Amino acid sequence: MPNVMIRVKDGGALLFYIAKKDQEDEIAHVETDTEDAWGGEVELTDGSKYYIDPITPRPSFPTTLRFKRA
Q: Which of 6, 26, 54, 58 is the most buried (most CB within 10 A)?
């Protein structure tokens, strides 16, 4: 389960960064993305998928979270 830094890009898109892999990519889709909850399956623009149990309430970004590979 990698630690992932998520931050907001200037245009409002979320960036997903794994330091140990030096991998940074934009988040294309989040399964649950509301004001009350955020998480589930997260798909990156390169097609990679990760999973985090939905977090209530939605976290403020930037933040570091632990994801599983989906």
A: 6
